Amino acid sequence: MTNSPHDTDRRTRALALLERLEAGAPARVTANLDAFDVDAAELILGFSFADVVGRDGIDIRTREMLTVAMLGAKGTAPGQLDFHIRAAMNCGVSRQEIVEIIYQIAVYAGVPAAMNAIASARKAFEALETSS
Amino acid sequence: MTNSPHDTDRRTRALALLERLEAGAPARVTANLDAFDVDAAELILGFSFADVVGRDGIDIRTREMLTVAMLGAKGTAPGQLDFHIRAAMNCGVSRQEIVEIIYQIAVYAGVPAAMNAIASARKAFEALETSS
Amino acid sequence: MTNSPHDTDRRTRALALLERLEAGAPARVTANLDAFDVDAAELILGFSFADVVGRDGIDIRTREMLTVAMLGAKGTAPGQLDFHIRAAMNCGVSRQEIVEIIYQIAVYAGVPAAMNAIASARKAFEALETSS
Amino acid sequence: MTNSPHDTDRRTRALALLERLEAGAPARVTANLDAFDVDAAELILGFSFADVVGRDGIDIRTREMLTVAMLGAKGTAPGQLDFHIRAAMNCGVSRQEIVEIIYQIAVYAGVPAAMNAIASARKAFEALETSS
Amino acid sequence: MTNSPHDTDRRTRALALLERLEAGAPARVTANLDAFDVDAAELILGFSFADVVGRDGIDIRTREMLTVAMLGAKGTAPGQLDFHIRAAMNCGVSRQEIVEIIYQIAVYAGVPAAMNAIASARKAFEALETSS
Amino acid sequence: MTNSPHDTDRRTRALALLERLEAGAPARVTANLDAFDVDAAELILGFSFADVVGRDGIDIRTREMLTVAMLGAKGTAPGQLDFHIRAAMNCGVSRQEIVEIIYQIAVYAGVPAAMNAIASARKAFEALETSS
């Protein structure tokens, strides 16, 4: 069994979705993944974005809300939480909706998880205000 | 400082929302909490439902999707995941949307978390088909 | 390097503390661990109880409160949470103190963790009332 | 974008690996996943087994040791831990190696995680002795 | 249903407790929370400190020990662990008691969690020695 | 019961293994632990390395693979993950094997855990290339 199926179309679809989450993200993320391993971009982005997040059935705006909620509740990937709060807002999620998700994180994962998410959100709010 | 603020209105609002999540839930949940401690229902349901989940800003249908995502991603409260999948569907979330949330859990929290959520979802699907 | 240091004194001290946590526990726990591996009781109970929990510096009553808080906050070992709520009460922790710890779990680990701990506590309260 | 790529080969390869992990598992697992959603088997088993665990670079015996370590350390999927301890042993991991992995779980994830894994291991040891 | 109950007394009681945990903390924490959302201070600090941690039944010194244990065991909020080790010591918890709690974290959550807590504790020890 | 068993041999064996994981690590790690508490090095390193990781039954190379998998899957100790990826490679684990472990982390703990591990791995790859 070879380790490199190289399904070009899957990678292309994943990167198109990633570009929609944040302009310029595909170049940065693939540079990171390609420097790690030749199969990483397809395996990881392909599964995440082409196979799952790009599916029909839930719109991307709601999907990003779900991702923010999950990353905030788990609290183990602060860099990705920063990214997905910005991505959610790039998909049309409002600042007030981010606030509401974080209050809900306090209920389902505790106040420290919410405090971490507040730090991420404040950075994202500032980054998006500066860029607009 | 007394431990029993007894804000009757807060309890009432929390139970009204809980009834909307699943008909009959308030009696069952308050029986459990009241047997534990006299302040439990107000403190826990009051914070969860009156203070946070009952807020404006995100509709209850989307909020239950977020809760399913968080409980599935954390994987530490299977009984509550069972409940909130049923609650989400009682609020209008479709079976296909539950499926999509669980695929997204696989991406952000791993396949074992998704497999646990599939077991919860299958029980919920069956319970709701039987009752309808 | 041999895998069997067999520090008899360490095992004896660990079991003496375990007996104080719940009368009869040493026989049950060592039966389980000995059936798993010959070194398990010394390695696991020795580290837990002889090396750490049996140390001076914090009394056993407070230590069991800390253990209940940690197990409740993590939410991944329900059987051990059941045991340590009973053990805490056997060391003099009151029912009301268990209640307070669980409310504090709600703050620092979220409401679902607290709900799981309430289920454990209600079983422990019942077991201890029946036995007294 | 359609939700059903139906890459038959990917499903076939995944099920072949699953059969190697435990004889008869493919029928049971696909029955569960197919009852949940038409795409579940390919998405979840395809990613897990065809895309990742079936890759070259680490042999299946070592991979199953890694899976047991991860599931034991996380402690949130007891049913899957049961399965993968059996699967590891079906791939040639010895009973003593399972014991060693669980001691290492105690170091890196704490004693309660190890105690849960001991319960899983004892069930697996019994199941495999009975079947042999 | 309005989102701004503005229970002034609840906020006041929460901040009084926070001031006791660390002199000057209320100004810093409310500045952070107010910049995030107008309701954050009351919802989050009100639940944490006025509703729960400020309750009778367990003294604040023991409560801070419980908080350090929970945050250390979870390992997902290093900034809050830093704060609560200082807060515990401000409430009379001794350096040796912090050491004992961290050894107990090693048992119930593993050595890496204890190593993270040691890093937090060393910073807190230094900060408090410098300030005294 | 005294808190200072001072089993010199146990400390010596632990440090010998630590030196094998990374040349120079014993001095750095014991400086950190000794500054925290006089018993820390023996309790924590003794349990980790003399009692468990130094045992027969699984070779150190495979044990370090297991540790990388567990730390990556839990995602709560990034500094220790950095260290153990370097340690694994110092024990003969290849760069490609680290890559494979991280893909397996994506399956069993989710993509964000894998992304964090990729950041750790890239730092380790660079550090080891520079030093060689």
Feature tags:
7 helices, AhpD-like, mainly alpha, 2 domains, homohexamer, disordered N terminus, 132 residues
Model description:
The structure is a homohexamer of 132-residue chains. The first copy, chain A, is mostly helical. Chain A has helices at 8-21, 25-36, 40-53, 60-74, 78-90, 95-109, 111-131. Chain A folds into 2 domains: 1-55, no CATH class; 59-132, AhpD-like. Chain A has 7 helices and no strands. Chain A is globular, with a radius of gyration of 16 Å. The interface between A and B is medium-sized, with 31 and 31 residues. Chains A, B, C, D, E, F: Residues 40-122 form the Carboxymuconolactone decarboxylase-like domain. Chains A, B, C, D, E, F: It comes from Shimia marina. Chains A, B, C, D, E, F: InterPro entries: 4CMD/NDH-1_regulator, AhpD-like, CMD-like. Chains A, B, C, D, E, F: This is 4-carboxymuconolactone decarboxylase.
Short account of what is shown:
Chain A is built from 7 helices and no strands.
Oligomer: homohexamer
What do we call the CATH homologous superfamily of the largest domain in chain A?
AhpD-like
Q: State the helix count of chain A.
A: 7
User: Mean pLDDT of chain A, as a whole number?
Assistant: 94
CATH class of the largest domain in chain A: Mainly Alpha
Extract low-pLDDT stretches of chain A.
1-5
| Percent range of helical residues of chain A | over 70%
N→C terminal distance of chain A: 49 Å
Overall tally of domains of chain A: 2
Main beta sheet strand tally, sense and closure of chain A: none
The count of strands of chain A amounts to: 0
Largest interface, counted by CB within 8 Å of the partner chain's CB: A-B, 31 and 31 residues
- Provide the β-strand percentage band of chain A: under 5%
Shape of chain A: globular
Order of helices and strands of chain A: HHHHHHH
